[in-house]
Specification:
Blueprint: H1 2-27, H2 29-41, H3 45-81
């Protein structure tokens, strides 16, 4: 009787683990899509990284230029006001 009870409890626990694994797999499906995308892009990375760096550098340059102009106008306004 004790052995049958333990076997039944073991089967119940296995079922619970199976359900939890199914939930984890469904929740992590998006990661597989990202990994697949990375594997497809990987051969192109040596070409894409310098291009991405160039684009980011150009954008940062324009952002920094705008920030510098803004700071300059604020300084002039303080001089004019005060």
């Amino acid at each position: 009787m004790q052995k049958e009870l333990l076997v039944a409890e073991c089967d119940l626990q296995r079922g619970i683990v199976d359900v939890e694994l199914a939930r984890l797999r469904s929740g992590l499906d998006w990661m597989q899509g990202g990994a697949d995308w990375l594997h497809r892009v990987r051969p192109w990375l040596p070409l894409l990284v310098p291009v991405a760096g160039f684009v980011v550098a150009r954008r940062w340059k324009s952002v920094l230029r705008l920030a510098g102009k803004t700071v300059g106008w604020r300084m002039l306004w303080r001089l004019f006001r005060g």
